[in-house]
Amino acid sequence: MSATPTAEPRLAHFPVPFFASVLGLSGLTTALHAAGWTRASLAILALTIAIFVALAAIYLLKALRHPKAVAAEWQHPVKLAFFPAFSISLLLIATALAPSVPDVARGIWLIGALTQAGLTLAVLSNWIGNRAFQANHISPAWFIPAVGNVVAPIAGVGLGFPETSWVFFAAGLIFWIVLLVLVMNRLIFHDPLPGRMVPTLAILIAPPAVGFLAWLQLNGGVLDGFARLLYAATLVFLGLALTQVGKLRRLPFGLSHWALSFPVAALTLATLRFAALTGSSAHFWAGQAALIASCLIVALLGVATLRAMTRGEICRPE
Fold first, then answer.
1. How many CB atoms are located within 10 Å of the residue 242 CB?
2. Which of 167, 156, 244, 250 lies closest to 205 in space, CA to CA?
């Protein structure tokens, strides 16, 4: 009799940022495939899909039983940006499936693209609506909707949706530039990020890295000046993120640490692709090092998440 009242509150506090773990896992899947680790890639892909289905089922149950809790997350200035992580997960899973089962990947991509478009417009409408956001509400997590749009062309071009992919790329690029100004203004001229939000600084790496991969798909794989600019910007933001490693090491684990996983996977993919196009051995080995780092980050985050779950440290009121 006592199990029900205990379970329901935990379900009510099941956080939408949990989907960030799927982004990291699916990014690692694609990075392993790009590096030639096919079997490992398929194993992580199976795990990614299983975790995504589980998280989606739990969050759907939360929406049915605790709609007010979902509405509260939608109204939260930071958690709001994590809702498109659901659709980005679908796009990344489609990207990982495209080489082996393109027909299945095409269907998943369409669902992900439609959902991503709807969530992007809904989030933007929320941002420019009647709510009054403060400067301290802004964080690098606000990049997530923009990054999601840039993800779409990576698989979309090859799956037969080039024009649609251009629209997603344009949306992602425009809002990346706008949000970059807002985020940098917040980081420089306002209070420092709260400790639990410091890991989200790694998200700065993702937009140019994913943009680099998307641009190569859209322009036929030509490493032109704009592609080089995007990859160079990735390295610039990597350097900025590395300056915060000292702070990260002192922080207790939280789900926000999963923000480290996808950007490093995107960096890995971009570096391996750059190495393949230029024949640079330095970039090849840098890509291998980034792949090892990506594997270690996901493994450590997975262990930390399981430990936190067994201790009841997740799905609690903030």
1. 13
2. 244
- Alpha-carbon distance of 285 to 161, in angstroms, equals 33
Coil, helix or strand for 219?
Answer: coil
Q: Which residues contact 187 (CB under 8 A, 6 or more apart)?
A: 193
CATH of the domain at 73: 1.50.10.150
- Joined together, the tokens standing for residue 197 give 């939000």
Residue 318 domain-assigned?
Answer: no
First to last CA, the chain: 26
Handedness of CA 170, 128, 205, 237 (dihedral sign): positive
* CA–CA gap between residue 155 and residue 132 (Å, rounded): 37
Structural domain including 198 reads 3-310
**What predicted TM-score, i.e. pTM, was given to this entire model?**
0.91
Q: What is the pLDDT of residues 157-172, one digit of tens each?
A: 999 999 999 999 999 9
pLDDT digits (tens, 9 = 90+) for 247-270: 888 888 888 899 999 999 999 999
3-state secondary structure of 315: coil
Using alpha carbons, list the distances in angstroms from residue 64 to 8, 11, 57, 211.
12, 11, 11, 36
